[in-house]
Specification:
Length: about 500
């Protein structure tokens, strides 16, 4: 048996080496003088290309008076530039300036709360509505989308997280220059038109997706309770009162400061000529000036001194979230947590699924993941929904029992080998598409400091021992380090 295991281990190590070498050979890095980082991979299997721009600024980088601004900017940067999204910017701009002046007065008056003048607020709101109506006459809706779509672009989208903001598109390879022209124009000449009408859209998004959704509301409260000091505790969308007082001026300042080449990582993967692509990107982006360096978050979350519990009473199905503070991506113990995640919660052969879903049938589903970001120390999360007639208490006790087992019983070597094989499969699957590889390149370059985290990850995982798992489980899975959130019905069992 030992001979077979040794052979499997050698094969896994060989596969890891080949995979890493292949990716290392294929990724071409290019750093521009203005600080923009390019990561390019030639793939000639189809005449298509994925282009991703990752800005290394997310909601964790916001000041207290601008929470939600990164997410708001994600919306606003689809609105166009001085030449796209408008029929006549010269005529539109004076109206936009008037809108901002009136909006500033309106928010200043509203900020007085109980001392505010209702008549003044009503008059300013009336003025703002008239001005927004006037400005809308010049707006060309969704011109970015229409341009990309007309030229075969698909998957045009963006997303904001605690750690960053990403814009992505898939295009025919011969349309890549269109992407360079549009995105360089947006980076230099973005116009945040329709800001206050879009702010209302975001406020409605918050009401619908968070305030009115019990599970999302629990999640938001759980994260906020887990981080009392670190900005990871703040929701990416912002609290409602944060959104209500965001201004176009704040958004423009945030954009000018941080959405700049030196804070951008560009991944282009697909049917490209690397040398020609670098020259093209230099031509369109090279003259753009750098912005401010994003300052690191220096706040350190204080260690908990006891378990925190959050209960949400709602007319919803019972739910449980359990979290433990853990280190950031790339730290030695984080690799051990990756192994623990695979053991407990990845796939139908995982311990949680086999024990709680299949055998005991006390939960309908269970998940294990890291959140709410990775750049800084974060949380190891377990979430589950009890299956009737079982209770949250039963599920919680079963989860804790599995965590305690990791502290006392060494994980079998065959289970660690199974994890290595699964990681190899998952990594190959995620990188099988141009977009999947572009996402991973930008994500790890931004959060781990280098895209080579991808090639080194499996080697680090292979070094994790049963003793490492027992040590990490004993160190982190403690009541003092634990936060628990739950949804219960009024008068229901817990």
């Amino acid at each position: 048996m030992k001979t077979i295991l040794a052979a499997v281990t050698l094969l896994a190590a060989f596969a890891t080496t080949i995979h890493a070498a292949t990716l290392e050979e294929k990724v071409v890095e290019h750093s521009m003088k203005n600080g923009m980082k390019l990561l390019l991979v030639e793939r000639h299997t189809s005449p298509t290309v994925a282009a991703w721009i990752r800005f290394k600024v997310g909601s964790v980088d916001e000041r207290s008076d601008e929470r939600g601004i990164a997410h708001m900017l994600e919306h606003m940067l689809f609105k166009g530039t001085t030449t796209l999204g408008t029929t006549d910017y010269a005529a539109e701009k004076p109206i936009l300036d008037k809108i901002e002046a009136v909006a500033q007065k309106l928010m200043n008056e509203k900020a007085r709360r109980e001392k505010a003048d209702p008549a003044k607020i009503a008059e300013l709101e009336k003025q703002l509505a008239v001005l927004e109506s006037d400005a809308s006459k010049y707006v060309v809706k969704d011109e970015f989308f229409e341009l990309y779509s007309k030229h075969g672009g698909t998957g045009y989208n963006a997303f904001t997280s605690r750690d960053g903001t990403t814009y992505l598109i898939n295009l025919p390879a011969n349309k890549l220059e269109l992407w360079a022209a549009i995105e360089s124009d947006r980076l230099q000449n973005a116009v945040l038109r329709e800001f206050y009408t879009e702010r209302s859209v975001v406020m409605e998004e918050r009401r619908r997706s968070y305030d009115a959704d019990p599970e999302n509301k629990l999640w938001e409260t759980f994260v906020a309770s887990s981080f009392l000091a670190h900005p990871y505790g703040q929701p990416t969308i912002g609290w409602m009162s944060d959104i209500e007082y965001l201004t176009r001026s704040k958004a423009e300042r945030f954009f000018r400061d941080y959405y700049a080449p030196n804070n951008a990582i560009v991944a282009i993967v697909g049917d490209i000529d690397t040398r020609k692509t670098i020259a093209m990107v230099e031509r369109y982006f090279g003259a753009i000036k750098p912005g401010k360096e994003i300052p690191p978050v220096t706040t350190i979350e204080p260690a908990q001194s006891g378990e925190r519990r959050i209960e949400l009473i709602a007319e919803a199905e019972p739910a449980l979230i359990m979290g433990f503070h853990k280190p950031a991506i790339g730290t030695p113990d984080d690799y051990v947590f990756d192994v623990i995640t695979m053991i407990l919660g990845t796939g139908r052969t995982s311990r949680f699924y086999k024990d709680l879903v299949i055998e005991k049938q006390i939960t309908s589903d269970i998940g294990v993941f890291d959140a709410p970001g990775t750049r800084y120390p974060n949380l190891f999360i377990v979430s589950a929904n009890p299956r009737a007639p079982h209770t949250i208490k039963e599920v919680e006790e079963a989860i804790l029992a599995e965590l305690d087992t990791l502290k006392t019983t060494p994980v079998a070597e065959r289970d660690l080998l199974r994890i290595l094989n699964k990681i190899e499969y998952e990594e190959a699957r995620r990188m099988g598409t141009n977009g999947g590889l572009a996402r991973n390149l930008t994500e790890y370059e931004a959060t781990a400091g280098s895209w080579r985290y991808m090639t080194e990850h499996r080697g680090k995982i292979a070094k994790v021992t049963p003793a490492d798992i027992m040590r990490v489980a004993t160190t982190y899975f403690t009541p003092l380090n634990r936060t628990v959130g739950l949804i219960t019905k009024k008068g229901g069992d817990k």
